[in-house]
Design a protein that fits this description.
The structure is a homodimer. The first copy, chain A, is α+β, with helices and mostly antiparallel strands. Chain A has helices at 4-16, 18-23, 53-74, 110-120, and strands at residues 26-30, 35-39, 79-90, 98-104, 122-132, 138-150, 157-158. The longest helix of chain A is centred in the middle third of the chain and has 22 residues, at 53-74. A seven-stranded mixed beta sheet of chain A has the order 1-2-4-5-6-3-7. In chain A, 43% of the residues are buried. The interface between A and B is large, with 39 and 39 residues.
Chain lengths: 159, 159
């Protein structure tokens, strides 16, 4: 299920950030468990015609950030969301448009994270993201931890 | 010592890559041991006015890539340079222009890497990079490994 308004909200955030707007990264699909992003290769090539590593890092980091923003929104919470650290593996050069997705890491429990955020105003969440080539093979992976800071009145924030 | 032609060559590569040109990342100084890059905050802000995490990742990855390109060139070698993996820590939000540098990781021996590349046509190299705020405090760090593949006639490559 893709909620058009939900994706539009997220894409509004992406478009408002100059380095993200320049790379054409945008949300394509969100079903509550997985958020999928897309970016055109043309805006993200290196000098050899394949995807720039920094663009893959941006896409996967934003996929994790977006996942958190949308699921917090779903839970009726607003928080500042900062990426704290990440590990990226570049497995193969990518000559196709960039398609990546993110989901909660398997060892994480979302209800516990929400409870922690409600009770302590702060929480941490670990996400996993990957990028695929045109045939669906994984070409890069990211594991990242995000810090969530409750912000009762403000908009979600990105670091 | 900054070699103007050397920095110009590197900046030519950066400018030729659309996602790098869009963020205004450019080389500022290289003394053989440290390569320093710069990018204006305006082209790299997130929705809250501080530096986008993906831009910090790009700047530090390119600092490592550029360090290798320049030092290989210094050694009379040309190789394809691919980032293989990286670990990034985001320590504090950055509200200044982006200034970062890279150097060889302390446990690495550059002559050994060069010998390996000459003899086996392939080598690995570990780099460390960091980003500073306007007062010189470290706001992000990156550790990355790069794969080098000898390319006798081609230009250096970036992943």
């Amino acid at each position: 299920m893709t909620d058009f308004d939900t994706l539009n909200t997220l894409n509004g955030y992406f478009q408002a950030m100059p380095p993200v707007a320049a790379t054409g990264i945008r949300a394509r699909d969100f079903d509550g468990e997985t958020l999928r992003l897309f970016a055109p290769l043309a805006a993200n090539v290196n000098d050899k015609g394949c995807a720039f590593g920094g663009s893959l890092a941006s896409l996967m980091t934003l996929a994790g950030w977006g996942w958190l923003m949308l699921n917090l929104r779903e839970a009726g919470l607003v928080a500042e969301i900062y990426v704290a650290d990440s590990q990226i593996r570049y497995l193969a050069p990518l000559y196709d448009d960039l398609i990546g997705d993110a989901r909660l890491a398997p060892d994480q429990d979302w209800p516990t994270i929400l409870r922690c955020l409600r009770e302590r105003q702060r929480a941490r969440a670990a996400l996993q993201a990957q990028t695929f080539d045109g045939r669906g093979a994984v070409v890069a992976t990211l594991s990242a931890r995000f810090a969530l800071i409750a912000a009762p009145t403000a908009d979600p924030r990105v670091a």
